[in-house]
Amino acid sequence: MNANDLLLRNWDACHDKEDWYPPLADALNGLTAEQADWHPAGEHANTIRETVHHLIFYKERLLRRLTGEETAYPPGVTNDDTFAARPGEPEDWHAAAARLAEAHQAIRDRIAAWNEDDFERQLPGQRLPFGIWANSLALHDAYHTGQIILLRKLQGSWPSHRSFD
After folding, report:
1. Closest C-alpha to 111, from 131, 140, 127
2. What residues have CB less than 8 Å from 146, skipping those under 6 apart?
3. pLDDT of 45-94, one tens digit each?
4. Whole-angstrom Cα distance, residue 126 to residue 133?
5. Which residues are within 8 A (CB) of 9 and not within 5 positions of it... i.e. 6 or more apart?
6. Chain centroid, CA 59 distance in Å
7. Cα(146)–Cα(71) distance, rounded to whole angstroms?
8. Phi then psi dihedrals of residue 123, to 5 deg
9. Staple 114 to which of 94, 105, 118, 144, CB 3.0 to 4.6 Å?
10. Average pLDDT over residues 100-106
11. What is the DSSP string of 2-51?
């Protein structure tokens, strides 16, 4: 297995292929807009919708870097800004979840088309090669998937027992 194959495996595991943890697609499956906007009482916690907007920001950013549309972090945007999402209609929630899946798939398609040297290709304005950057983004997804599942457990919308292969 080469670096590209390993990256693709990790990319798939973070989104829609069960591995050591549930994938993001499973964590979002069947979620209503009301559930996506819920947060526990007390200390501030991001809602699932806010976390999905954060994931969209970084996936679309990576996609723009791959296409050459972006070379630097957008000026004036902080990491906290990337969580900005307003509760809306159910269609808005489903559109956001679909947008995340589309960005993920578009990046996957590009990775699948790479030759072995593309893993080490430098991104404009970055010191790390694209393959490392993409793998870090997969780990980032895994981290936030855990947060989403915890929120679902706290609200009672995550099954107490899961069956997977």
Report:
1. 131
2. 21
3. 899 999 999 999 999 999 998 888 877 778 889 999 999 887 777 789 99
4. 9
5. 1
6. 7
7. 30
8. -85, 145
9. 118
10. 97
11. -HHHHHHHHHHHHHTS-SSS--HHHHHTT--HHHHT---SSS----HHHH
